[in-house]
User: Fold this.
Amino acid sequence: MAITSKNYCKILESASKNYKFIKFDEKFNDDEKVILWRHDIDVSPNRALFMAKKEAEFGIKAYYFVQVTSIFYNVLEQKIFEIIQEIASLGHTIGIHFDASIYDTKSFNKVGYNLNFEANILKNIIKKEIEIFSIHNPTTLKNFKFDNLNYFGFFNASSPKLYKQYKYCSDSNGFWKYETLDNLLLNNNIKKLYVLTHPVWWQEMDMTPRDKIQRSILGRSDYSLKYYDNLLKINNRKNIS
Assistant:
């Protein structure tokens, strides 16, 4: 199944029929079929909002991890923080998609400081405590490991301990890692499933991953240029191209 927005709706329908959506700290019976549903917003908050709205139509509550230090979007930009607020208002949980590598520190206490710093930014956006984080590009970390379930008062959604408890499925780099999600959802032998998606891949057209990234970058560029043109127009200023 191609990774497209249309197929995402089909996946949501299948998942909602076959699994109970749970929180990371939720207790459940061993005989229940449960699923953790996580999104890391590396590139496109706009696609994340699309997914959040579709999930809400199915009564699904998911996790959205926001990258405060992303080079692809700025959480303090009005349009972006309004998107984050809207995702939270739909009942989804907002967490930190934490890139420890950008801080270039060998002090683990400093890592905790930076994690809390980012949490406070998101807290001020959604007016709610941030209690969970995921690691951006965990395979590239050199100085630290985040193996445990809790650090600095935050739950670690990237802990390898979770991958031992759940069947794990991810669309990292625009391809299904291990097995395709649509097939896993139909496998009655899988009782506990952990799904990670990245919203940028779930676009209307089936394209290569690089083309999807490019489309998101150019879309943001086009939005910024239109904003500039409109700003000059409403202020009666000359716009020279």
